[in-house]
Design a protein that fits this description.
alpha/beta, Rossmann fold, 2 domains, seven-stranded parallel sheet, six-stranded parallel sheet, 16 helices, 35% helix
Length: 429
């Protein structure tokens, strides 16, 4: 990991609880990123914040540190019942990433964390909540499901976090967010942390209405896209794009490549041709069972699966380190989606390549994207050698239907908040 994205601000020079500092020390985190340096002095003192920074700049650690410090610094009564904090994310993958970061940074706090999201683990998640937790991290739908069953209460929430708030709107979660916020203590009685890559007017309106009107802190580079992304635009006819991408991947070292298409059908078709031409690839889509999604993502993270293809909805919340290339097979309709897509590479000070194809169907999005970026995307003639002779696609088998053989068949908890009843909770290093 490059260190050029860090500031001179050390975590040890900030008034962070010792148990949280122990976790940061073990994780090898010593210096703040810009968004952490800008927000932590206020949030550690109990102030609300609306933080805006590009993807991959340390927003997750910024709110995890602030949350854990608050909980460790405010002991509760012996008979009080948690959870005490709730962190809401738009996707299950992002919720898992936050959960893993919280477990790492909070390793010496004695806090109990629960990851609550749809698609898998219903009974185990319910049992974990019934046994008692300090911090709930998850997606709104599954959390509301358990709340309505009275598996846990929101009456003692002291910290609420909204991560990637702009995505919450895009995915239609805002009514769910409002449902949860209205059942917590009033905004002035809790710490409110809102973070996003973009803080639009609608996001700030939500913050004003339900989160104590937090001050906005934006950490921006001179350009909207990550500083170390090498962007290239190729004008390629729609019917030639598949041939071009196959040839491109055959001429470069894709290592860990994310490809974005505008429709699931286009993504599946592209993966069929990639497989048929000797390139291991998979589609990431919302209807894939959660356990299979996690297996695909683990293969992708480990380098066993070099290419992952998906749509914006399916790939939102995928925070994967060391993505070498992002390819826009289709230019997105929304300029903000372009920024989110290419922000998957060049994270945490690394560099990466973002390659976009402008075809006759989607080239009309280009002026809006460049206006949003306030710059032209560097373009180049498509290299002739990248147009591969395509072998037939290798498409997945469709499930059987009809009259095939069938198998016969028959017909709220307490939190063990030891960390706060003894505010000296700390482990030796």
């Amino acid at each position: 990991m490059s260190e050029t994205h860090l500031t001179d601000q050390r975590f040890t020079d900030l008034p962070i609880h010792d148990a949280v500092l122990d976790g940061l020390d073990e994780a090898g985190l010593t210096h703040c990123t810009p968004i952490q340096a800008e927000t932590l002095p206020r949030t550690l003192a109990g102030g609300n914040i609306a933080g805006e920074a590009q993807t991959g700049t340390g927003k997750t650690a910024a709110f995890v540190i602030a949350t854990l410090h608050h909980l460790m610094s405010h002991p509760v009564d012996e008979d009080a019942v948690g959870p005490w904090a709730i962190m809401l994310a738009p996707t299950r993958e992002l919720a898992l990433q936050i959960y893993n970061d919280a477990e790492q940074i909070g390793a010496y706090t004695g806090l109990k964390f629960a990851a609550v999201y749809g698609g898998t683990g219903y009974d185990s998640q319910r049992q974990q909540l019934q046994d008692g937790v300090d911090v709930i991290i998850g997606t709104p739908g599954r959390i509301i499901d358990f709340y309505k069953q009275k598996v846990f209460s929101l009456r003692n929430i002291e910290v609420v976090v909204l991560d990637e708030a702009d995505r919450m709107f895009d995915l239609g979660f805002i009514s769910d967010i409002r449902f949860l916020l209205r059942r917590m203590p009033k905004a002035e009685q809790r710490l409110n942390l809102l973070f996003s890559a973009t803080l639009s007017y609608r996001v700030m309106e939500l913050a004003w209405e339900h989160m104590g009107d937090p001050p906005r802190v934006a950490v921006e580079s001179e350009q909207r896209t990550a500083d170390h992304v090498r962007q290239t635009l190729y004008h390629v006819a729609k019917e030639d794009k598949t041939s071009f991408v196959v040839g491109l991947l055959q001429h470069i070292d894709p290592r860990r490549t994310l490809i974005f298409a505008n429709t699931k059908r286009a993504a599946e078709r592209l993966v069929g041709y990639l497989k048929g031409n000797g390139i291991d690839a998979a589609v990431i889509s919302g209807d894939i069972p959660q356990n299979k999604r996690e297996q695909l993502l683990e293969r992708f993270r480990s380098g066993d699966l070099p290419v992952l293809v998906g749509t914006d909805v399916a790939a939102r919340g995928l925070h994967i380190d060391a993505v070498s290339h992002v390819i826009n097979f289709d230019l997105p309709h929304d300029p903000e989606d372009y920024v989110h897509r290419i922000g998957r590479t060049a994270r945490a000070g690394e560099s990466g390549d973002a390659i976009s194809l402008a075809c006759d169907e989607y080239v009309f999005s280009l002026p809006d994207i460049e206006a949003y970026l306030s710059t032209k995307i560097p373009s180049a003639p498509p290299p002739a050698e990248y147009f591969a002779e395509l072998a037939p696609p290798k498409m997945p088998r469709k499930p059987r239907s009809g009259n095939g053989p069938r198998r016969s068949g028959g017909q709220g908890g307490r939190s063990s908040s030891s960390r706060r009843r003894s505010s000296t909770a700390r482990s030796s290093r």
